[in-house]
């Protein structure tokens, strides 16, 4: 049980070249040991340019880990048993194979991954968007079904085709345990940073593969605030709703290089069909 509906993806997927440019994604998914002491030494200490946050601020944030507790992605609770994450978080980047569901856990209510707080759930099922091939092509969304319902408050999902949520300049907040600098360590504490949504023309300038139906991007022109490797799958919240999922980026926080997010309004009807 649990793997129903999950396609196998061959190793010869497209986008391999692009993936080489997406700093850190491979290493992040290969697993990083969070190093507590280093966080203070980074010039831009959190997520990238953000700050530590708490379960109280973001009860619906979950960490995706392997069975040993090694965090590799984030996600958001949209009901007690459903987590929205990135499709690419369901694939082992080293092999191109599906991650083994038996080796996946969702951790809710635990901002500091070095503690035992909150709830750990096994995964009963994975729905990955049927169009997903590679994050560079879009459709980077998945829904995990939890075996153990989480008591934490879920976050509302953006409405289907509520494209007004992506008005350029809209400030969103992105959450995760990813790297705190482009080549730095992941974080064992949950971090968040505010970034404005950029207009599609800016995204297209930074990414030749940018697809405005499937994606949006966010960041400040000067850089310095962004998600980074290990934040994939994590929530982008605007006006109290989940409107995006951390998908990819070239490096982290570089000038004129916004982070790219899955445009959930485009997928909301399909995702709701899974809830
Ligand atoms: N693909 C990355 C991951 O696996 C997410 C990278 C996001 N990068 C960015 N600059 N916004 O965690």
TrEMBL record:
Pfam families: Trypsin
Region forming the signal peptide: 1-30
Record-linked InterPro entries: Peptidase_S1, Peptidase_S1_PA, Peptidase_S1_PA_chymotrypsin, Peptidase_S1A, Trypsin_dom, TRYPSIN_HIS, TRYPSIN_SER
Family: Belongs to the peptidase S1 family.
Protein name (record): S1 family peptidase
PROSITE patterns, per database record: TRYPSIN_DOM, TRYPSIN_HIS, TRYPSIN_SER
Transmembrane portions of the chain: none
Peptidase S1 domain span: 47-275
Keywords, sorted A to Z: Disulfide bond, Hydrolase, Protease, Serine protease, Signal
Organism: Saccharopolyspora rosea
Source species, domain of life: Bacteria
């Amino acid at each position: 049980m649990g793997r129903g509906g999950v396609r196998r993806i061959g190793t010869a997927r497209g986008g391999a070249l692009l993936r080489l440019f997406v700093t850190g994604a491979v290493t992040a998914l290969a697993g990083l040991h969070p190093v507590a002491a280093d966080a203070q030494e980074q010039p831009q200490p959190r997520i990238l340019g953000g700050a530590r946050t708490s379960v109280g601020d973001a009860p619906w944030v979950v960490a995706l880990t392997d069975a040993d507790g090694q965090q590799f992605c984030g996600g958001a609770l949209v009901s007690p048993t459903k987590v929205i994450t990135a499709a690419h978080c369901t694939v082992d980047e080293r092999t191109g194979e599906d991650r083994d569901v038996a080796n996946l856990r969702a951790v809710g209510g635990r901002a500091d991954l070095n503690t035992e707080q909150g709830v750990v759930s096994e995964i009963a099922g994975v729905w990955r968007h049927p169009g997903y091939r590679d994050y560079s092509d879009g459709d980077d969304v998945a829904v995990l079904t939890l075996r153990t319902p989480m008591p934490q408050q879920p976050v509302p999902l953006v409405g289907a085709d509520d494209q007004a949520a992506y008005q350029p300049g809209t400030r969103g907040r992105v959450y995760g345990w990813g790297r705190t600098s482009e080549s730095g360590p992941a974080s064992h504490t949950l971090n968040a940073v505010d970034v404005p949504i950029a207009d599609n023309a800016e995204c297209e300038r930074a990414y030749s593969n940018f697809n405005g139906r499937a994606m949006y991007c966010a960041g400040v022109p000067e850089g310095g605030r962004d998600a980074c490797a290990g934040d994939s799958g994590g929530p982008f919240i605007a006006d109290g709703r989940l409107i995006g999922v951390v998908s990819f980026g070239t490096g982290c926080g570089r000038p004129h290089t916004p982070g790219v997010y899955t445009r959930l309004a485009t997928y909301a009807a399909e995702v709701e069909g899974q809830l």
